Amino acid sequence: MTTDTDLDVDLDVRGVCKRYLQHGKDFTAVDDLSLQVPKGAFCSILGPSGCGKTTLLRMIAGFIEPDAGEIFIGGTSMRGRPPNRRPANMIFQHLALFPMLSVGENVAYGLARRGIAKQLIQRQVDAMLARVGLSGTAVKRIDQLSGGQKQRVAIARSLVLEPTLLLLDEPLGALDLKLREHMKLELKQLQAQIGTTFVYITHDQSEALVMSDFIAVMNQGKFEQTGSPQDLYYRPHTAFVAGFVGHSNRLTGRAVAVAGAQPVARIDGGPALFVSPQQVFPPERPLALFIRPEAIVLARTPAPLENFANRLSGTVQSLLFDGANSTVLIRLDDSAIELHVALPQAGQLSGQLGGQPNGQRIGQVAELRAGVKVHLGMAAEHVLAFAV
Amino acid sequence: MSQPPTTRLLLWLLLAPAVLWLGLLIVLPHLEILMLSLRQRVAPQEYVFSLKQYATFFDEPLYWHTFARTALMSLLATLLTLLLAFPVAWHIAKVARGRTKALLLALVLLPFWASEMVRTLGWVILLRGSGVIPQWLFHLELTAQPVELLYNDASILLGLVYSSLLFMLIPLVNALETLDDSLVEAAYDLGGNRYSILRQIVLPHAAPGIAAGTIMVFMLTLGNYLTPVLLGGKNSMWFTEQIYTQFITRFNWEQGAAFALLLLVLSTLMVWAGLKLTGQGFGETLRRA
Hints:
The complex is a heterodimer of chains A (about 400) and B (about 290). Chain A has about 400 residues and is of the alpha+beta class. Chain A has three domains: about 10-235, 3-Layer(aba) Sandwich (Rossmann fold), CATH 3.40.50.300; about 240-290; about 295-385, CATH 2.40.50.100. Chain A contains ten helices and 20 strands. Chain A has a six-stranded mixed sheet with strand order 6-7-8-3-9-10, sandwiched between helices. Chain A has a five-stranded antiparallel sheet with strand order 13-12-11-14-20. Chain A has a five-stranded antiparallel sheet with strand order 15-19-16-17-18. In chain A, a hairpin with a 4-residue loop joins strand 12 (about 265) and strand 13 (about 270-275). Chain A is elongated, with a radius of gyration of 25 Å. Residues about 345-365 of chain A have low confidence and may be disordered. Chain B has a single domain, classed as MetI-like (MetI-like fold). Chain B contains 13 helices and two strands. Chain B has helices at about 5-35, 50-60, 60-95, 100-110, 115-125, 130-140, 155-175, 180-190, 195-220, 225-230, 240-250, 255-280, 280-289, and strands at about 40-45, 45-50. The chains are: A alpha+beta (about 400), B mainly alpha (about 290). The interface of A and B includes residues 61, 89, 90 and 114 of A.
C-alpha cells in the first residue's frame, strides 16, 4: 500500500472493509477493496444486486463509515468527514429531487447552504440549467418535468457545486428502455464535456460497457476484475466476469490430458473442444466454458470452416429475432447441447448458406429456419475456460 | 335526475342515518342555541329579541378574560403537544423498524383504551398533596413537606397535552412516513445540516400532517371540560366551565347559549387563521386527518 497521494487520482480507495450483522451472522458487504479512479474518468462499478456496490458508494459519499481502510477524494482523507463536507455529490437511484422546491430552488439548494450571495446563486443556477439544456425551467415544479428532464435537474443540482467526484447510484434504472438508451449517451457526452470524475454503479452490463472508461466488476464484496470495457469483454479473468459481462454460451466440461500445445476440454455430454491457451489445467479438472454468440461462424458446408480449430455440426432449433441482436439456437449433433449463435453479418453467410447474392439479408434469415443442418466453426481462443 | 325511483329511494335510505345525525344532533341544536342566545325573558313564558347576553360577555371582565385565557392556554397546549409529539413521531416513522415500531405505536395507543376520566383521575392520584409524587419528593427529602402539585396552570397543561398526544401523533407519523429517506440524504449530501434540512425539507413535507394534528388538538383542547376541572380545580377558569355554570347552576340558558356560540366562532376563526397563515388547504388537511 502506498502512502503518497497522487494528484491525478481523484478517488483512492484503500483496503476498505464493511461488515454487517445480519440475522445474527456476520456478513461482509465490502471485503478489503482498493480502487483508484484517475481525474476525469468515467468509472463504473458493475455487479449483481447484493454484491456490495451500493455499500461501497455510500461509504465514498460518507453515509457509511468503513470498518477498516481509508478513502481519499482529491488526495484528502475522508475519515470521519460527514457527507455534507465531502467534495463528492451523489445522484440517487430515484433522484431524490425536492418536490417542495422549484427546479431553480433545487439546483440552488447546495449553493445556498454555502452562504453564497443570492444574485450569484441565481446566475450560477441559470448557467447550469442552460448547460444541461433546461433553460427557462427554473420556475417549474418538479412534477411538471419529464423523466429525462428530472434526470438532468438531478445532475445539475450536484454539478453546480463543482464536486471533485460525482457518484451515481443506478439513476437510469427507473427510466423506460428508450429513454435509458438515450440517457446513456447523454450522460457519457456530458461527462466528456465537463470532465468531472464520475463513479457510476449499476447492475446493467450494457450501461457500464457503453459509458465507462474503465469498469470494476464486483461480486460478493470483492472486485473480480478491473479494466477497460474491451478488456472485460474479450479477456475476462474469471468465470464470473465472462458470464456477467456481455452474453455468452455457458457450458460445463472437464480438462483432457492431450500431448501438444493446445489445451482441450470435453464438454459434459458433448464433443471435445480446443480451448483458449491462457491457462493450463490438470486432467479431469471441472471447467466452466464460455463462447460468445458472435464468435461462432456458421456455414452450410464444412469447407469454408477449415481454418477453425473447432468444427462442429448441428441443427437449427429456432430463430430468435431481435433486430441487430438476433440469434439462432442450434443443437449440436449427437448431444443435447444448444448454442446461441449471433445472426451472421451481411454478406458473410449469404454465399455460404443460401448461395444468394450479397445484401439479401431477409433471404438469409428465411434460409435459417428450424430443422436446417449447419456447420459451426470456433477459434480456440474464443472458447474461454475457467476452473470452477 | 334520470335514475330510477327505486335507486333514489335506496340512496336516501342509506343516507338517512347520516342526515338524521347531522340534522337532529348538530344543525338543530345549534339553531336552537342561536335562538336561545338572541332572546331575553321579560316575563314568565314571554321573550323578546335581545343582544343582552353578548353585551354581558363584553361588559363583564371575568367572562372575556376567561375566554381569552382559554384560547391562549389551548394554543400553548397545542404548541407543546406538537413539540413533544414531533420527535416521537419522527422516531416511530423513520428510526424504529418492524416490531419495535408496532410496539411503540401500541404504547402510544394503550392509554386511550381507558376513558378520559380514568386517565385524568390517574394524574390526580399522582399529583395531589397526599399523592404518589409529592410523597416521594417528601421521603427523598427534596421538599420539606408534601407539596400540592394539582390545581395550577402547569397541571392543566400537563393533562391537556397528555390527552391530546395521540391526536397529534397519528397525523404526524402518517405525514413523516411518506417522506422519502433519500430526500433527507440528498439534502445532507448537498451540504445541508440538521436545521436546514428540518426547515426546508422535513417541515414542508409534514406541513399537512402538522396542520391536521394541530387543528384537531386545538379544537379538542378548547372544548375540553373534564381535564381543566379535575386538574385545575376551582381556579381553572376554563370557558367551558362558564358555559356549564350558566346552563346548570345559574339556569341561565340564554347566557350559556351565547357563550357556547362565541366559543364555536372562536374555534372556527382560529382554525381558519391557522390554515391561512400556513397556506394549507382545508380539504387536504381533512384528508390527512
